[in-house]
Amino acid sequence: MKRTRTVLVTGGAGGIGQAVARAFATAGETVVIADRDAERVTATAQALGVHGRVLDITDEASIERELDALEAELGPVDVLVNNAGLLTTHGTLMELPGSDLDTILRTNVVGTFLMTQHVARRMVATHVTGTIVNISSIGGRQPTPGMGGYESSKAAVDAVTRWAAIELAEHGIRVNAVAPGPVLTEMLAAGMPEGSPQRQAWEGRIPLRRLAAVDDVAAATVFLASDAAAHITGTSLPVDGGQLLT
C-alpha cells in the first residue's frame, strides 16, 4: 500500500495555491499550506480541510521554525510546492524603482531558493526521495512590456529549478517547474472580466483562446510530483494554451 505523502504548498492561501492544495488533498495526500498572512492561512486551511502554518519564505528563522514544527507533527516533507511569490509589482525598464525590483527578486527568487535549500537538506538527512515543484511563468521566456521585473524573477526560478535538479538527482530528489501563462484567479477575473478589452487582448495571444484555470496549473503540479513523472527532472512545463508558440 502506497504511503500517504506530506505535501507543503507555500502561498497556499492564494488562488493557485488553494487549487494545488485541493488537488493534492483530493489525491489523498496530507497537505500543509503555508502563508505569511495568519488570518488567511487559518481560514483557508479550515475551508480546505488541510493543515496550515504561518511562514515567511524570505525569513530563514521562520522557515526553520515552521519546518521543525511541521516535522514534529506530520513527519518529513515529501513534496514541496514553491508557489508563494509576488505578482503585483510592475513597471517599465526606465520607470521601475530598483527597490521594487529588489523586493520582487527577494520574494520570488531568494524565497524559492531558501525553501528549496532548507527542505532539500532535510530530505537528504532523512533519506526522503522527495520531489519539488516550483511555480514559474512563461513570462520567463516571453516578454511583456511593463512586466520585466516579474518575468526576470521567473526566468531565475527556472534556473534555480535546473540547478537544484542537477545537484539533488544523486539523492533521488526530482525538481521541476510549472510555467503558466496568465491564470484566471478570482483577482484576475475581477480586474479583467469576461468580454473586457484587456481580457480579449490576453486571450488573443493564446492559440487555445482562453486563460488557464487554476485547476490546469494544479493538475500539472500534481503530475510532476507523481510517480507518472518519475523520470522527469529539471524541466519547466508550460501550461499556456500554446502561447509560447506565437
TrEMBL record:
<keyword id="KW-0560">Oxidoreductase</keyword>
<dbReference type="Pfam" id="PF13561">
    <property type="entry name" value="adh_short_C2"/>
</dbReference>
<feature type="domain" description="Ketoreductase">
    <location>
        <begin position="5"/>
        <end position="205"/>
    </location>
</feature>
<dbReference type="GO" id="GO:0030497">
    <property type="term" value="P:fatty acid elongation"/>
</dbReference>
<dbReference type="GO" id="GO:0016616">
    <property type="term" value="F:oxidoreductase activity, acting on the CH-OH group of donors, NAD or NADP as acceptor"/>
</dbReference>
<dbReference type="InterPro" id="IPR002347">
    <property type="entry name" value="SDR_fam"/>
</dbReference>
<dbReference type="InterPro" id="IPR057326">
    <property type="entry name" value="KR_dom"/>
</dbReference>
<dbReference type="InterPro" id="IPR036291">
    <property type="entry name" value="NAD(P)-bd_dom_sf"/>
</dbReference>
<protein>
    <submittedName>
        <fullName>SDR family oxidoreductase</fullName>
    </submittedName>
</protein>
<comment type="similarity">
    <text>Belongs to the short-chain dehydrogenases/reductases (SDR) family.</text>
</comment>
